[in-house]
Design goal:
18 helices; single chain; globular; alpha/beta; about 40% helix; about 425 residues; 6-stranded mixed β-sheet
Length: about 425
């Protein structure tokens, strides 16, 4: 065995073997989730054992595990006395590959400028596109490495990473290659998303940009996919007034579906244009933002169901109307969380995202943990390997310097101290940022 975590005060499994659906939790299952928590009993702590392949081999009380594995060779033992253990966190929406920060825009937003005001003035995405196009792959990788290392330090073990600051085939592929290198070299799992339709280039109309994505970018990305040079899971489009309208977004998403990609896109963030209904009609696996979702959109997402990836940092920074999370959960939409890390929302901490979701959107602590683990994994199609502590899943754990898991959210802004160890497939991660 690779690792034995012993004597834990609490082990939070998220789902149990008896749960009817263990791939995500929705409706009453998310609202009333008991998180399948095991607690120390009669002074006997809990163990999690991870095998040589980095998979969870067993979970149970110390006395039972001692008898069961007394003749096993163990590479490493961690004493978790008085501490809690929970799954590594999953960040279901990020834009992590870019150059050129936008700190100068922060004061503009504070002064009342809207996202689209800045976008139409040539700032926002366009500013980042210029800097990203001018950066080399090595420069972008250096920046990405620092960001992903900091995400790991904050407890994230699986992250969705989008392209989208290239807006042409050459630079979108450059970004995807950078993500591919990170998959090979860094101890964090990455689900890549092609987001060539993130904005309309300055020298094009929205229709011209749509055709460029369809006829130039996507075919070249998929050719590299077929050759094994890239491994892209999903396609994204910024379906928004003044960017890609509903029908243009539909054509891009349909092309992605034909190419074998999952649909995971920005919908109904700034204006209510019924992008959610369109996405549901295509069977989109996940949709993000949703601040302006309609009641019909909620019903459509619940019917599939499609996972709602909620991004508290963006609503907070842009002072947007909160998405109707309570209605989504009540009506059966599985809710996930993402940091939306990007130059506009510079947040690398999923525990902070969980705190914002609880305070701003009135999610309960268990709902937020479900949203940052099993549901976020399901949004990326990774629920069979990530998002809960179950035998056969990856041995990705957080060991907290606290007796209860809630301290991860409660101790706001200090999560790197609350998290004692981050375990990735049975190995303790060095959380030093070089």
């Amino acid at each position: 065995m690779r690792l034995w975590v012993k004597h834990a005060r609490q082990v939070v499994r998220i789902v149990s073997d008896s749960d009817a659906c263990r791939e995500y939790l929705a409706g009453p299952a998310q609202k009333n989730c008991n998180l399948a928590i095991l607690e120390e009993k009669d002074g006997i702590g809990l163990s999690v054992i991870i095998d040589r392949d980095g998979l969870i081999a067993d979970i149970g009380y110390d006395d039972v595990m001692e008898l069961k594995y007394k003749n096993q060779t163990i590479e490493e033992i961690i004493d978790a006395t008085g501490r809690s253990v929970l799954p590594g966190l999953v960040d279901a929406h990020t834009h992590p590959v870019w150059a050129g920060d936008r700190v100068h825009e922060f004061s503009m937003k504070l002064a009342g400028a809207t996202y689209m005001d800045i976008y139409e003035a040539g700032g926002g995405i366009h500013f980042t596109v210029n800097h990203t196009r001018n950066a080399s792959e090595d420069e972008l990788y250096g920046l990405l490495k620092q960001r992903l290392t900091r995400m790991l330090a904050n407890g994230t073990v699986l992250v969705e990473g989008k392209s989208g600051y290239g807006l042409d085939a050459e630079n979108e592929i450059k970004m995807l290659r950078v993500l591919e290198r990170a998959k090979r070299e860094l101890p964090i799992d990455i689900s890549s998303t092609f987001c060539g339709a993130h904005a309309v280039p300055k020298n094009q109309t929205a229709e011209e940009a749509t055709l460029n994505v369809l006829n130039e970018q996507l075919p070249k990305v998929m050719l590299m996919q077929e050759n094994g040079e890239l491994h892209v899971d999903s396609i994204d489009v910024f379906c928004e007034k003044g960017v890609f309208d509903v029908e243009q977004s539909r054509r891009i998403l349909e092309a992605g579906r034909r190419a074998g990609l999952r649909l995971n896109f920005h919908a109904d963030e700034l204006t209510p244009i019924n992008g959610t209904e369109m996405g549901a009609s295509l069977g989109a696996e996940a949709m993000s933002h949703l601040e302006e979702i309609s009641p019909e959109g909620i019903a459509a997402m619940a019917a599939k169901p499609s996972i709602a990836v909620i991004l508290p940092t963006t609503a907070y920074l842009l002072r947007l109307k909160p998405p109707p999370v309570r209605q989504m959960i009540t009506q059966g939409v599985p809710v996930a969380l993402g940091s939306d890390f990007n130059p506009n929302a510079y947040c690398l901490s999923m525990p902070l995202v969980m705190n914002l979701a609880c305070v701003m959107f009135r999610m309960t602590l268990p709902e937020a943990l479900v949203a940052a683990t099993i549901n976020a994994a399901a949004a990326l199609g990774k629920q069979k390997t990530h998002g809960s502590l179950e035998v056969g899943k990856y041995g990705d754990l957080l060991i907290l310097n606290a007796p209860r898991w809630e301290h991860l959210v409660y101790q706001m802004g200090d999560n790197q101290q609350v998290i004692g160890q981050v375990i990735k497939r049975g190995r303790v991660i060095d959380r030093t940022v070089n």
